[in-house]
Amino acid sequence: MGILLIKTDQTDAFVGLAEDLEVTASLEWLAGNQLSLTLNAKIEKLLKENNLEFKDISGIVFFAGPGSFTGLRIGASVANTLAYSLKVPIVGVSGKDWQDKGLASIKKGVNDRIAKIHYGNEPNITKPRK
């Protein structure tokens, strides 16, 4: 069983696998505006390279921001959908030590059920024209 790590807040995206509190494998790539086309494929590639299947995922750690609005939404959608469909715990964490905090939370049995995004600022919504 492995814990899946997902970070999609910048143009460089990251997915990783961890056992207990140690990252054992990872992929990082320049996703740019192709994140929605590449994220699932990169997760599948990472699992395959480590002789794992989706059913072997025991938890998900998602970097919840701040960062790119669209990148975080795509990552959260994938992470939350996987957690729900696989019936595994998910935690959303922020900060430079997001991996350590997330893995420790999963190990303690924390389950956010839905990883929420932290954009870092209030939304700047354009007022409708009259």
How would you describe this protein?
Strands 3-2-1-4-5 form a five-stranded mixed β-sheet, sandwiched between helices. 34% of the residues lie in helices and 26% in strands. Helix 1 (35-49) packs across helix 2. The protein has three helices and five strands; from the N terminus they run βββαβαβα. It is an alpha/beta fold and 130 residues long. It has helices spanning 35-49, 69-86, 98-108; strands at residues 2-7, 12-19, 22-30, 57-63, 90-93. Strand 4 (57-63), helix 2 (69-86) and strand 5 form a beta-alpha-beta unit. It is globular, with a radius of gyration of 15 Å.
Shape assignment? globular
Overall residue-averaged pLDDT value: 94
Q: Could you list the spans in which at least 5 consecutive residues all have pLDDT below 50?
A: none
| Radius of gyration over C-alpha positions, nearest whole angstrom | 15 Å
Estimate percent helicity.
25-40%
Main beta-sheet annotation: 5 strands, mixed
Q: How many DSSP-defined strands?
A: 5
Distance between the termini: 56 Å
Q: Structural class of the helices, strands and pairings? A: alpha/beta
- Helix/strand order, N-terminal first: EEEHEHEH
In terms of DSSP E residues, the strand content is 25-35%
Give the helix tally: 3
List the helices and strands and how they pair.
Blueprint: E1 2-7, E2 12-19, E3 22-30, H1 35-49, E4 57-63, H2 69-86, E5 90-93, H3 98-108
Parallel strand pairs: 1-4, 4-5
Antiparallel strand pairs: 1-2, 2-3
Structural features:
130 residues, globular, 5-stranded mixed β-sheet, 3 helices, alpha/beta
